[in-house]
Design a protein that fits this description.
Layout: E1 15-20, E2 23-30, E3 33-39, E4 46-52, E5 65-73, E6 76-83, E7 86-92, E8 98-100, E9 114-127, E10 132-141, E11 150-157, E12 164-170, E13 179-186, E14 189-196, E15 198-204, E16 212-219, E17 224-225, E18 231-232, E19 237-239, E20 242-243, E21 245-246, E22 255-256, E23 265-269, E24 275-279, H1 281-288, E25 301-304, E26 307-310, E27 313-316, E28 321-326, E29 333-341, E30 347-354, E31 362-367, E32 372-377, E33 386-391, E34 400-407, E35 410-415, E36 419-424, E37 432-438, E38 442-451
Antiparallel strand pairs: 1-2, 2-3, 3-4, 5-6, 6-7, 7-8, 9-10, 10-11, 11-12, 13-14, 14-15, 15-16, 17-20, 18-19, 19-23, 21-22, 23-24, 25-28, 26-27, 27-38, 28-37, 29-34, 29-38, 30-31, 30-37, 31-32, 32-33, 34-35, 35-36
Amino acid sequence: MNPFPLPSGQFSGDTFPVFRDGVCHLFHMMPPVIAHHVSRDMVNWEERPVVVARGVSGEPDCNNNATGCVVEHEGRFYMFYTGNQNICLTISNDLDNWTKYPLNPVLAGDNKQYSTENFRDAFVFYYEPEKCWWMLFGTRTMAHPGQRAGCVGLAKSQDVLHWELHPPLWSPEIGPHCDCPQLINHQEKWYLFYLQRNTRVRVADSPEGPFLRAVIRNLFTPLCSAGSRPAWDGKRWITFPFIMRLVNESEDGDWQYGGPLAIPRQLQFLPDGSVAEKAIDEMISTIQKLPNPGNPVADAEPLVGRWNLQERQVACLSDSGGTLLFPSVTADCYLDFDLILNHKSSDFHLLLRTGAELLNGYQLSLHPTTSQISLRQISEYDIDRVMVNRHFDLPIGSPIHLRAFLKGDILEVFINEHVSLTARLYSYKDGQAGIEFRDGSGIVKNIQWRELK
């Protein structure tokens, strides 16, 4: 079972899904083309023919094809996509067979209001109050320096074919990009998703703004990329980010565009304007149906501290903390448990791919005092740099739910069905799992695991 599918043995880029008749149509960049996969459970995927191939020399999509969206209008499907930093169009009757619009591009920058060099990622929807179609796109204004010119551009149309540029929907003057924008109306709030390397969200009372920063601004962590195009499946908003590769398969390497699909996320919109995330129910259900390898507590090995071991529950009784290994938990695994920290000054560590000497492997740390979740390597001096971290307020004395998916060189962790953390683990491929409390006692209960062969 691989929770991180790699379409066609290649790598995926940005995604823009559509749900129709119980089927998820996942359109996604597979440079230089736009690919198409379908699924009924969002776990197993079937490849469909390429939707948009690169045009011949001189055509408006001859260099590359990038992110877009699909809308339905009068019984036909219209895919707006990026070609050569222009907005192009292809049309279908069935979501499988597509014909490029002969008058492409349908929209481009003008170098007066919007840049022609950064003009991409159309998102189209019908705005009922104005009885017309709106198109959002990621671009730069000509009024500001490039590093502060990123904005969400706006165009309008009566027929989805002919478009007129309007002033930006949002021009925050805070960064170089507002890529892949999408506007969602949910429970009388308007949520603006966009990319500036991270997937970010703003919230407003009106589709015209002002768009305010949420308490938690970013979704995911940086290697989990391009999650700003969620789709509605009839009951949930679901997004399909991908996982960046690192150059030379090194944990110190620069980011490299494209990778396998991440675990799809269900989004939850909270009263404070922030957006929580969790792994989709279908993925959890599929993994829990895998063979049960047994209770990992049965052969647990206390290395440090005093422990009380029970059925799928362990309690660290030492005020200074302790370390416990689970030798039966394999290097590629799914882990699911609740933990309780008894003191705000204490930390909890999930150890992965380590051994009894604790000289290598990885350490996921939960720090209540600093409200941080972080990941780093384990080494002799125990002070290695943090690979990735995430802010989250961790309760004391109440259960904190943790899910970890570790397969090959990919780790994804979900905390309290609220935030996630994604990393590439290239250095260590083998070893055991374990848990550790530091500077305080605590409990880990309801421990489950499955082997991800």
